[in-house]
Amino acid sequence: MQNALSGAAIVELENVSVTYPHGVTALTSISLQLNRGEFAVVLGMSGAGKSTLLRTINYLRPPTQGTVIADGLGDLSNPQILRSHRQRTGMIFQQHQLIERHSALQNVLMGRLAYHSFWRSLLPLPQIDQRIALDCLERVGLIDKALTPVNVLSGGQKQRVGIARALAQKPQLMLADEPIASLDPASAHKIMTLLQTICQADGIAALLSLHQIEFAREYCDRIIGLAHGQIIFDGPPAALESHHLAEIYTDQTIVM
Length: 256
Ligand SMILES: Nc1ncnc2c1ncn2[C@@H]1O[C@H](COP(=O)(O)OP(=O)(O)OP(=O)(O)O)[C@@H](O)[C@H]1O
Description:
Elements: E1 9-19, E2 25-35, E3 39-43, H1 50-57, E4 65-70, E5 74-75, H2 79-87, E6 89-93, H3 104-109, H4 127-139, H5 155-168, E7 173-177, H6 185-202, E8 205-210, H7 213-219, E9 222-227, E10 230-235, H8 242-248
Parallel strand pairs: 3-8, 3-9, 6-7, 7-8
Antiparallel strand pairs: 1-2, 1-4, 4-5, 9-10
Helix pairs in contact: 4-5, 5-6
Adenosine-5'-triphosphate (ATP) binds at residues 20, 22, 24, 26, 44, 46-52.
């Protein structure tokens, strides 16, 4: 295979830095591989660079230095490679980013657009796409809400529609930016269980950003700790000790 990364990596960041136009550096010299089949989390204080890291992995925020390489595809600075990488990368957002007046099904169908040209996507999508979207709604337990406008769904249900939309892309990589931040603990556990189960069943690599250390420990098999745009810790939950947390959450008291 051309442009294959070593080992199990699906995407690799090499010496990546991101500086925003007004001069804030959000990431500094990040080198990181995300591996197939892993369910990883990035932890860090507000402003540590978690969202920027996730967005850089699909070039919603291109690096100002360094490269992002997708396995089997190559450097994301090439527009064609980026298009292929985005097609196989699902994105889940804290605020769902759904079209509120559209039904759950219409929103999930958006996940199929990456498989069609711009002009084709202006027409109703083929039946096969409708079937895939309905399957995805079924997997997140919302088949009975397929025709319900999203604006009458609960926060947890909206997040499940967001997961179904990402899933409809048939992704190999899932990026989830604070997927449980606006949910109560019971709904948050449901969403984490759902994400973990689906990613495991479909062999999807996942990188989530979270604020809740206890959720990261319970569900994830790899923790990446960021502080001030740099990686402070990268390892399994069992290796994360209080001194790492003190470094990640520099201004906060840590309760273990
Ligand atoms: N669009 C932007 N333009 C300018 N600066 C930005 C932009 N987005 C983020 N930043 C800055 O980059 C730094 C990292 O922000 P980022 O959103 O990646 O952190 P975060 O860890 O995700 O924070 P939070 O947990 O609050 O979402 C911060 O200093 C932030 O102010």
